[in-house]
Amino acid sequence: MTAAGPYALAARTLLDKGWAPLPIRGKWPPLTGWTGYQGVWPSAADVEAWIEDKPGWNVTVRAPRNVLGIDVDEYGDKHGAATIADREATWGALPPTFVSSSKPAPSGIRWYRVPEGLRWPGILGASVEIIHHGDRYGVVAPSIHPNTGDTYLWRDPDGQTCPSPSVEDLPELPAPWVEGLTGGEAATVLAKASDADRDALLRRVLADNRPPC
């Protein structure tokens, strides 16, 4: 019998709810070939194989094409909440949504449904990064943070701990935020250059000596 672990416990449910669950050791790096614009979307058979081979690994999700994550860091010298407040003053308040994090609010990845085919930035501002189908991923419950030992949780729009949400249950990112982040620019050029973009991201990560998530 396959031993229980973060990946084994969560992967099937996440796949059923529209996410792409990938096994990951700690927080970084992800499995090669499964992220980025050219990454393969996992099938049920892939997930079952990973449950068998890597049941105790952490679980991370790659965003579907219609999902965006706004990753806010608010701890130590990171003040992402101020960045969000600054953008909200321009684009309007973000609606409450489901959040994945190992840290208390306001830290965490805020997940929204978005239009497909747009070119999303990788960084919103200080201590806030963007997760989208072509870039990055999000470690989720019930993973264990490799440095602190804290357990990742899902929080619902009321801030309460909850099961993983379905993609269809995520609220839509307001139109002013979509326009502000993308300017309506299509993702075609970025998709063609995805390998170079991922190499550039890796160089940035190594220079900063930190994981991209």
What are its keywords?
213 residues; alpha+beta; 7-stranded antiparallel β-sheet; 3-stranded antiparallel β-sheet; 6 helices; 12 strands; 29% helix; globular; disordered C terminus
Task: Walk me through the structure.
29% of the residues lie in helices and 21% in strands. The chain has 213 residues and is of the alpha+beta class. The strands form 3 sheets. A 7-stranded antiparallel sheet has the order 8-9-3-7-6-11-12. Helix 1 packs antiparallel against helix 2. The model is unreliable at 189-213 (pLDDT under 50).
Short description:
This protein is of the alpha+beta class and 213 residues long. The protein is built from 6 helices and 12 strands. The strands form 3 sheets. The chain has a 7-stranded antiparallel sheet. It has a 3-stranded antiparallel sheet with strand order 1-2-10, with helices on one face. A two-stranded antiparallel sheet has the order 4-5.
